[in-house]
Amino acid sequence: MRKEHLLAPGPTQVPPDVLLEMAKPVFHHRTAAYRKLHQEVLEDLKAIFRTKNDVYTMTSSGTGSMESSVVNVVSPGDKTLVVQGGKFGERWVQLSKAFGANPIVINVEWGKPADPEEIRKQLKANPDVVAVYTTLVETSTGVVTDMQAIGSIVKETNALLVCDGISSVGAIPMETDAWGIDMLVVGSQKALMLPPGLAFITVSPKAWKAIDARKPAAYYFDLKKARKNIATFDNPWTPAVTLMVGLKKSLELIKQRGIEQIWKDHARLARATRAAVKAMGLKLFADPPADCVTAVLMPESIDGETVFKKLRGDHGITIAGGQDQAKGRIIRISNMGYVDDSDVVIIISALERVLAEMGHKFALGSGLAAAQQELMQKA
Amino acid sequence: MRKEHLLAPGPTQVPPDVLLEMAKPVFHHRTAAYRKLHQEVLEDLKAIFRTKNDVYTMTSSGTGSMESSVVNVVSPGDKTLVVQGGKFGERWVQLSKAFGANPIVINVEWGKPADPEEIRKQLKANPDVVAVYTTLVETSTGVVTDMQAIGSIVKETNALLVCDGISSVGAIPMETDAWGIDMLVVGSQKALMLPPGLAFITVSPKAWKAIDARKPAAYYFDLKKARKNIATFDNPWTPAVTLMVGLKKSLELIKQRGIEQIWKDHARLARATRAAVKAMGLKLFADPPADCVTAVLMPESIDGETVFKKLRGDHGITIAGGQDQAKGRIIRISNMGYVDDSDVVIIISALERVLAEMGHKFALGSGLAAAQQELMQKA
């Protein structure tokens, strides 16, 4: 009978309309019906990603699309430039190494964003860098990076700009073309309001040049194969048909609301969440904080893992704890995708009671009151 | 209002109970609930695959698990032995080449199985072959290969035996351990009665030795990462949670019926299908034919593509046509997974009428009568 509330930064809640759409009988993918669906989905994704570049869907976790953005453009021995300021920056480093590239790693303090000037400096010192790997929102820390500034720097060089938008695109502004993102990778289970299992990647003309100049050691994630198949709106491999059907539905919901309005909606909920935790005497871990996930620093005396466990065990709320060096020190509350005012009120109410039980001193209700002030404002 | 009938060799029909299970709210994968589900699913898969070896689930098409069985055991320059007797044998060749291996290709006439003695001969002449890549049922031709015989040969050598069981395992007998299959790859959207998006792979101790001796150029499909994560029943990357939930349900249905009974059920439906098309004066394309997909040779005067299109357009039935050299010459009828007597009657009835319209001479109803004789028999 207990209600479960999913407020982790992925997987996120899926609207009932999308779940029910996916419960319809499975159909074959080598059909006009699938190709029409695929074409429409790609058009909608381009609108959300703000790009005229090619977009591809792949059946994999987001990490699959990250791998695709590495294996197709990097050859063994190539130099890459990687921003590492959390778990997902680390993944970029691991991917570069796994496929024999030599990453120059820009280490960034957890909770802080990459400094665009450091990227400019490194690219000047290393004009042979093939691609710059970045993260729009580092989910492990909740920080958002100024991708527009980085784009303006990288576009003046021969290097490609690759951006992990898995935990952010669809929730906060991303202007793929205007900012000069050559490859944007996105996952289904975050702001796009779908279960995990689909990933997306955009490819700019500049990226295609790099891809066409290489014979990649790739097969499943080979983008040239994907390009060949997209001519007829096919996939190289059997696609996850039910997830594609769900995607069509979730994109319809997004279109109805409008992507710019959705960005504003996320900003409003994030403001309410931040105001609430600050009113409870807590501090934010990230600076600047992203508008899709709020990482909250726990007081010295409070173990974040216990907070996380009590929220789930006593209140049925799944958020995320901290990872690695942030384990026990932070909790992470997502407002990505199918989340509204009621979810913010639920998590803040439960968090107040958990922290009060654990001995944190603050006025019970102060978090909720602060959230209310923000929720009174229109997006 | 039209009823749609899916009888293609993948994706196949998904039971309503499974579809509805997947329509439940999404939950997080870093939870005790997911880990328990994962553990149970792996145990059930082992029972179906008849193996005590490790089994891994991955979020991808079947091709992803094929790639995994290549990148983890083959290094650039390694020699592989590949049976190529159709589209999926070709995929093994392409995979070997994509990752820098040198495949010795055993070309087999389409519709015929690999000759185990040819494999023995090649392994004797090439004792440095790292792995033998085979296909239990070559879906493009409908032929079944004697994997037990091949297993008895390969197990006496240093080579690994890798078997593509994507379009067959769960429908026809597969004795992974008894036959000496080192790596078996399976997909979700065939006999396991799920939508596409999950793939499976088994790894024998002999295969682990080969894997541990290498540093693969792999990341998403890195089996060592998967092994590390399975210790806590985790996946290295966010799993397709809804498909895993559906899998649990479909495995329950399979367990209820019993895998050996399901093999017999498939054999019975395949006998009925074969008897029907023979009674209509048609010939089988494959020898020996698999009990999960029936490839039917069209008469000289009949274009298989037209048959395929009329079945879909006029009767709402999706089967498969022929590919490449078999295009227009054959049609392929699947009885994999969630298929019963009613489906056989529906496809044979429609096929009779389509062929009669197209001028093929036979007694209308003769196919159905022959199917009836077989359907009178218990599995």
Description:
- The structure is a homodimer of 379-residue chains.
- Chain A has 379 residues and is an alpha/beta fold.
- The first copy, chain A, has 14 helices and 15 strands.
- The first copy, chain A, has helices at residues 16-22, 32-49, 62-71, 87-98, 116-125, 147-154, 176-179, 205-212, 223-230, 241-257, 259-279, 304-315, 341-357, 366-375, and strands spanning 5-6, 54-59, 79-84, 102-107, 129-135, 137-138, 143-144, 160-164, 183-187, 198-203, 283-284, 293-297, 317-318, 320-321, 330-334.
- In chain A, the strands form four sheets. Chain A has a seven-stranded mixed beta sheet, with helices on both faces.
- In chain A, strand 3 (79-84), helix 4 and strand 4 (102-107) form a beta-alpha-beta unit.
- In chain A, helix 1 runs antiparallel to helix 10 (241-257), helix 2 packs across helix 10 (241-257) and helix 3 (62-71) packs across helix 4 (87-98).
- The longest helix of chain A has 21 residues, at 259-279.
- The mean pLDDT of chain A is 97.
